[in-house]
């Protein structure tokens, strides 16, 4: 039974215990992205790097066995700087918005894409729950000006949609903001999309022009609001509240633009009925690859290509729906970023 010191705290652990697990027994949390107890370690992200006295280089805590007499430092300056650098490298080619342009522009930072999904589903009460501020004073002009669809033809009529929610919510309530104010959190913004990316983003979205209410005084009817809601491209990341990359980057003070590389293409893969796959957010941690293998998926996910071009894709040239027949939920839960996310969740998607 090796006895070791972690951040100057002594612990004795069974033979074969990793430094990560030994630290956890002491209540010391070491961040991990490519490791899960149920799927093992890929030692690719190096976010769990720790210093061990006598060793020149930092080592991954998830794959280093505890040894007798070891002295481990999990939070020294060198360790935190390396962790920040590793996160910045992971962010260097990350493509996607943590927060949709409309939500960023909204003074209350309300989750407008989720509000719009509720409207499309006919659930006005849930839409109202997500709106911050007094429904009587709702003003969607600013978010509407920021709407990405405006680059394509006309913006989604956010102002009319929010007024529709206020008029039909059944109460003049002061609702709670759904998220922490997005402007105060670490956020990645992918900026302007190319015409090709925009074109692809529009697949499956209503091509109709902006809906004008038949009675402008009365505002949208249910049918008009639902039809306008279907024009939304859903630019938000469905994992904005539970993305390890975002959380750790914020905790470490990482900067998304510190290392600049060639931006990957923005692709939103909707082949699976329940899952969105965005390869531009993938950090190639390998968790989904290992999980689809474990689950015996006939077209398991695998790494395709080499070097910087390596990406995760289904084997046998199949599509994502065939690769994630049994393992979809496990893969989405394991994915440390928004690369794999559920299309339908409580936020109204
Ligand atoms: S298309 Fe939808 S999610 Fe994107 S900015 Fe416009 S309203 Fe927001
Ligand atoms: S899709 Fe997610 S789980 Fe799979 S390799 Fe990429 S980041 Fe990891």
Report on the architecture of this protein.
- The chain has 349 residues and is of the alpha+beta class.
- It folds into three domains: 73 residues, Roll (Ubiquitin-like (UB roll)), CATH 3.10.20; 129 residues, no CATH class; 89 residues, 2-Layer Sandwich (Alpha-Beta Plaits).
- Helices cover 30% and strands 11% of the residues.
- The strands form five sheets. The chain has a five-stranded mixed β-sheet with strand order 2-1-7-5-6, sandwiched between helices. A two-stranded antiparallel sheet has the order 3-4. The chain has a two-stranded antiparallel ribbon with strand order 8-9.
- The radius of gyration is 23 Å and the shape is elongated.
- One iron/sulfur cluster binds next to helix 3 and helix 4.
- The site of one iron/sulfur cluster (SF4) has 16 residues, from helix 3 and helix 4.
């Amino acid at each position: 039974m090796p006895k070791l010191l972690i951040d100057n705290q002594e612990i004795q652990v069974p033979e074969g215990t990793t430094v990560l697990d030994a630290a956890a027994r002491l209540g010391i949390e070491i961040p991990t992205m490519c490791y899960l107890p149920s799927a093992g370690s890929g030692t690719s992200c190096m976010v769990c790097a720790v210093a061990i006295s006598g060793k020149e280089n930092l080592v991954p805590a998830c794959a280093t066995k505890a040894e007798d007499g070891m002295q481990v430092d999990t939070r020294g300056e060198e360790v935190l700087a390396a962790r920040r650098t590793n996160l910045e490298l992971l962010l260097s080619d990350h493509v996607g918005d943590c927060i949709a342009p409309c939500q960023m522009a909204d003074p209350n930072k309300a989750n407008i894409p989720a509000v719009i999904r509720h409207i499309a589903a006919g659930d006005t009460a849930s839409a109202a729950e997500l709106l911050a501020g007094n429904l009587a004073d709702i003003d969607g002009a600013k978010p509407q000006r920021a709407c990405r669809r405006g680059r394509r033809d006309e913006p989604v009529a956010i102002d009319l949609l929010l007024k529709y929610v206020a008029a039909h919510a059944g109460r003049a309530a002061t609702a709670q903001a759904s998220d922490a104010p997005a402007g105060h959190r670490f956020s990645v913004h992918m900026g302007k999309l190319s015409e090709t990316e925009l074109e692809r983003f529009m697949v499956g979205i209503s091509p109709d022009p902006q809906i004008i209410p038949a009675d402008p005084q009365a505002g949208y009817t249910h049918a008009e609001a639902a039809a306008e809601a279907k024009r939304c491209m859903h630019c938000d990341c469905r994992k904005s509240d539970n993305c390890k990359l975002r959380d750790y980057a914020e905790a470490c003070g990482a900067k998304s633009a510190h290392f600049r590389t060639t931006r990957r293409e923005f692709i939103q893969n909707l082949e699976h009925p329940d899952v969105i796959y965005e390869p531009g957010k993938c950090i190639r941690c390998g968790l989904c690859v290992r999980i689809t293998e474990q689950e015996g998926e006939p077209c398991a996910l695998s790494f395709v290509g080499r070097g910087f071009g390596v990406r995760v894709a289904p084997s046998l040239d199949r599509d994502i729906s065939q690769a994630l027949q049994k393992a979809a939920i496990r893969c989405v839960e394991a994915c440390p970023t928004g690369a794999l996310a559920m299309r339908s969740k409580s936020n109204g998607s």
